[in-house]
UniProtKB/TrEMBL annotation:
<protein>
    <submittedName>
        <fullName>Vacuolar protein sorting-associated protein 52 A</fullName>
    </submittedName>
</protein>
<dbReference type="GO" id="GO:0042147">
    <property type="term" value="P:retrograde transport, endosome to Golgi"/>
</dbReference>
<dbReference type="Pfam" id="PF20655">
    <property type="entry name" value="Vps52_C"/>
</dbReference>
<dbReference type="GO" id="GO:0019905">
    <property type="term" value="F:syntaxin binding"/>
</dbReference>
<dbReference type="InterPro" id="IPR048361">
    <property type="entry name" value="Vps52_C"/>
</dbReference>
<dbReference type="GO" id="GO:0006896">
    <property type="term" value="P:Golgi to vacuole transport"/>
</dbReference>
<feature type="domain" description="Vps52 C-terminal">
    <location>
        <begin position="334"/>
        <end position="535"/>
    </location>
</feature>
<keyword id="KW-0813">Transport</keyword>
<comment type="similarity">
    <text>Belongs to the VPS52 family.</text>
</comment>
<feature type="domain" description="Vps52 coiled-coil">
    <location>
        <begin position="83"/>
        <end position="256"/>
    </location>
</feature>
<feature type="domain" description="Vps52 C-terminal">
    <location>
        <begin position="273"/>
        <end position="330"/>
    </location>
</feature>
<dbReference type="GO" id="GO:0032456">
    <property type="term" value="P:endocytic recycling"/>
</dbReference>
<dbReference type="InterPro" id="IPR048319">
    <property type="entry name" value="Vps52_CC"/>
</dbReference>
<dbReference type="Pfam" id="PF04129">
    <property type="entry name" value="Vps52_CC"/>
</dbReference>
<keyword id="KW-0653">Protein transport</keyword>
<dbReference type="InterPro" id="IPR007258">
    <property type="entry name" value="Vps52"/>
</dbReference>
<dbReference type="GO" id="GO:0015031">
    <property type="term" value="P:protein transport"/>
</dbReference>
Amino acid sequence: MTEVEPNDGPTSVLDLGAFVGELTVEDDAASDDVALEGLEQELQDCKTDDVVAMILSKGTKLRDYTKDVENNLRQIELDSIEDYIKESDNLVSLHDQIHDCDTILTQMEKLLSGFQAEIGSISSDIKVLQEKSMDMGLKLKNRKAAESKLAKFVEDIIIPPRMIDIIVDGEVNEEYMITLEILSKKLKYVETDTMVKTSKALNDVQPELEKLRQKAVSKVFDFIVQKLNALRKPKTNVQILQQSVLLKYKYVILFLKEHGKEVYLEVRAAYIDTMNKVLSTKIRAYIQALEKLQLDIATSSDLIGIDTRSTSLFLRGREPLKKPFFCFCFGRKDKHSQDIFFCDEFFGEQSMFYDIFAGPFSVVDEHLNTILPNCFDAIGLMLMIRIIYQHQLIMSRRRIPCLDSYLDKVNISLWPRFKMVFDMHLNSLRNANVRTLWEDDVHPHYVMRRYAEFTASLIQLNVDYGDGQLELNMERLRMAIDDLLVKLAKLFQKPKSQTVFLINNYDMTIAEAGSEGGKIQMYFEELLKSNTAIYVEELLAEHFSDLIKFVKTRASEDPSSSSERPITVTEVEPIVKDFASRWKAAIELMHNDVITSFSNFLCGMEILRAALTQLLLYYTRLSDCMKRIAGGSALNKDLVSISSIMYEIRKYSRTF
């Protein structure tokens, strides 16, 4: 094997083939057994190995390097053996210690094994104890449950001596009712519990419970009947007795209902009979008292359009309207309707109300059926209709519908009667004898006063109701009275008297209707306005006819125009001088005329002021016309100043 000489310069690439190529088979006999297959690949892989690359870079042969490595390993082995020999004593001591530890651990293993066996035995014992404890707990729970049921059974079925003493000998009071509750629970218990029915103890207890039940039923029956009898006593305040006395013992009724059904029905029937008679008596007495307050009942002849000046109900003003004959018998009915609350709370039955009030209703129906066919008071009938409606609203807000059907029945009977009486009034106006009714008096006619009061009352009764049917009927009545009034006015010979008559009647009707007259009031206000304008012209024409005629016919003409008959001073002078000579006296006459003609002072003063204002307008137009007439200034000395007329108007205006 030849040695590769190193180059002068650094070797950039190592040639492994050069080293391998020097190897021969003879160099190593051991290599005969080595397969060289794959050697080339391994050599290629070693190119990248850092150690191999370092060895090759030094130029050392692989065999020599291998020998060095073997020598080094052998030396290291010898050094290690020498070190082990030096530490042999320590190793022997360590071995002995390990052996001792092993012995101790063996003993501990045996001891722990014994502990494990004992723990296993204890665990089994604990498990057994746990099972016994659970079994004992279950038994204890069952015994407690049995004890609780048995204690409840004994408590529910046993009859304490104290309870017997109270039921048999005690007074019916709060303690007695508490004892009744306990007795009721025991009776329900023995009747409903299946376990009790199969119990032998029931044979001993049930007869005693039955005796106590019978005694309690008998005793509370006597007690309640005694309290109910107190309701029949005169001057007894039924409501106070119900609320303050009977309601305290309402459990007594419940006890009878549950454990003495037959006796309960007797008590119920006794209460219904008692209250039926008591309320019937009270309502009958109430009706009789109202009849004593009744002053007049309208008859078939008390109609708006009939001449009944000597006996007329209407001439007595509003007195009949203040004291309607029967309508208020419903006015306090809601006080008695409080009984429905008592029936519900004391007996637990609202239906009893109808049984209790069957008698009072029959008393009211009897009286109503007697009075209604002979009732000709339309205002009273409408007042009853409105009162019934108000009571229905009150009871609806209180959610008490028990009287709805009865009140509807009464209402149905009232409306046809009201319509019939109203139509009688209407026909009395349509068929009135104008000659018989007429009086030579311009003041409000008594028929119109009847109409005004009648209508005003109906208007008041229709406020907040808006009854369209009633409004339609009043409109028909208004048309009839208006037609009759015009006919009566035409019987006056003087047009002025006709107008004054109409104004007085219209004004009176408006005053009666008040601020809630609605369409009727507006209609008569328009008539009053138009007739006032007519009267003003008639009044002025009576005192200043020439002035008015001239102003209406000639004042608007142009004096300088070339008309056939131009306005001249000669034509105007008599009018101016006549006015200047008597205008104050004429106004005074107008004032006196108004005062005596109109019943309503304020209405008369308004009419006078309107007349004076119109007079001022006429005279102003006359003055303006004179300024346009040739030579008209010559009459200035005779003209009355506008300020003077204004002063006079203000003087009369101060009176109102």
